[in-house]
Specification:
It is an enzyme of class 3 (hydrolase). It catalyses: ATP + H2O = ADP + phosphate + H(+). Keywords: ATP-binding, Cytoplasm, DNA damage, DNA recombination, DNA repair, DNA-binding, Helicase, Hydrolase, Nucleotide-binding. It is found in: Cytoplasm. By secondary structure, the protein is an alpha/beta fold. It has 3 domains: 200 residues, Rossmann fold; 68 residues, Helicase, Ruva Protein, domain 3 (Orthogonal Bundle); 65 residues, Arc Repressor Mutant, subunit A. The strands form 3 sheets. It has a 6-stranded mixed β-sheet, covered by helices on one side. A two-stranded antiparallel ribbon has the order 5-6. A two-stranded antiparallel sheet has the order 9-10. Strand 3, helix 5 and strand 4 form a beta-alpha-beta unit. It starts with 6 loop residues before the first strand and ends in a 12-residue tail after the last helix. The structure holds adenosine-5'-triphosphate (ATP) and magnesium ion. The site of magnesium ion (MG) has 4 residues, from helix 4. Adenosine-5'-triphosphate binds next to helix 2, helix 4 and helix 10.
């Protein structure tokens, strides 16, 4: 039980203050004085920036509409909502959405993650502590150990588990009733989920990359919350360089704010965005150092492919899973690489992005 990360958030309450406490005066939100009690760490800021309700959640209109139906239906029938699976690349709002589900239902959220549920006892403890209507959030659910996963099947379906007491021939199994709860699972790799687990979710939401208008709203909203002034064209520029990802948009905003604080008046204009993103190695398309390293390895090291993802990962000195889950989804969506049966292939756009002429026959030329 030692490694179970068990946090409880009470998100109940109809319309609490939204998105944390915005600093009142932009000037006090800026550097200058050091206040040890201020929201200083980046994690604190990330928490402050999380939308709390469905209405506040920007973008993902399809997921929002579908989820709204699921939750409203459950509320009207006075039952706990069906289990929800959220899948999509990092930073698109899966954890945020899990918190919103608990908030909208007026219940508590308990959080854990697949790798923390190594032994069935860890999961049993977690499940037996749930109160009726609670939301149990399991992050990285595809990384759960198999025995725990099998216990979860029964819990999801019948709200019941069998706890094994003792060892060897004397072991007995004791059935344990659970309070009806809603499981929210998050995964960056829905392909790695086993069939039986996937089938037990009543609703699967595929989170998509955000478009620039939606990310512009994310940036403007975050700027307001952290108390920094930003020109509309500067917000669009940050949005368009954020790889379709709100977490990156918020992070770039903070870096640009640093730049504007140090080199300007603290107000963010287009020039500050452009200059700051050069400093932080974010290129015109929003690709970062690792994205470019992958493209370079693929094109300069392997003539554009096809090449396997593990070879690429070794070339850039990263885990294969990082390349596959963090870099690739966006490079594919940006039309820079395609996945084929024999490996990854660079498109003409990728060659041109590196300033090279694509050889004849390159995809997209
Ligand atoms: N729709 C949104 N509107 C505004 N901000 C958002 C939205 N979605 C996400 N964010 C911001 O992006 C940050 C990252 O979101 P979140 O932690 O929910 O992503 P995630 O999908 O769980 O990522 P990971 O797979 O890495 O766990 C949050 O702190 C939040 O501030
Ligand atoms: Mg998360």
């Amino acid at each position: 039980m030692a490694n179970v990360e068990k946090t409880e958030f009470n998100l109940a309450g109809p319309s609490g203050p939204t998105g944390g406490t915005p600093p009142t005066d932009p000037a006090t939100a800026r550097r200058g004085t050091i206040n040890p009690h201020a929201l200083n760490t980046e994690t604190d800021i990330e928490t402050t920036l999380r939308p709390r309700s469905l209405a506040e959640f920007i973008g993902q209109p399809k997921v929002r509409d579908q989820l709204n139906l699921v939750l409203t239906g459950a509320k009207n029938r006075n039952v706990t909502p069906d289990h929800v699976l959220l899948s999509g690349p990092p930073g698109l709002g899966k954890t945020t959405m899990a918190m919103i589900i608990a908030y909208e239902m007026g219940t508590s959220l308990r959080m854990t993650s697949g790798p923390a549920l190594e032994r069935t006892g860890d999961l049993a403890a977690m499940l037996s502590n749930l109160m009726e209507g609670d939301v149990l959030f399991i992050d990285e659910i595809h990384r759960m150990a198999r025995p725990a996963e099998e216990m979860l099947y029964m819990a999801m379906e019948d709200f019941r588990i069998d706890v094994i007491v003792g060892k060897g021939p004397g072991a007995t199994s004791i059935p344990l009733e659970l309070a009806p709860f809603t499981l929210v699972g998050a995964t960056t790799r829905s392909g790695m989920l086993t069939g039986p687990l996937r089938d037990r979710f009543g609703f699967t939401a595929q989170m998509e990359f955000y478009d620039t208008p939606d990310l512009t709203q994310v940036v403007s909203r975050a700027a307001k919350i952290i108390g920094v002034g930003i020109d509309p064209d500067a917000a669009v520029e940050i949005a368009s360089r954020s790889r379709g990802t709100p977490r990156i948009a918020n992070r770039l905003l903070r870096r640009v704010r640093d730049y504007a604080d140090v080199h300007g008046t603290g107000h963010i204009d287009l020039q500050a965005v452009r200059a700051a993103l050069i400093v932080f190695d974010v290129d015109a398309m929003g690709l970062d150092r690792l994205d470019r390293a992958v493209l370079t390895a693929l094109i300069k090291g392997h003539g554009g492919g096809p090449v396997g993802v593990s070879t690429l990962a070794i070339a850039v000195g990263e885990e294969a899973s990082t390349v596959e889950e963090v870099c690739e989804p966006y490079l594919v969506r940006a039309g820079m690489i395609t996945r084929t049966g024999r490996g990854r292939v660079a498109t003409a756009a990728a060659w041109r992005h590196l300033g090279l002429e694509p050889p004849e026959g390159t995809i997209g030329s």
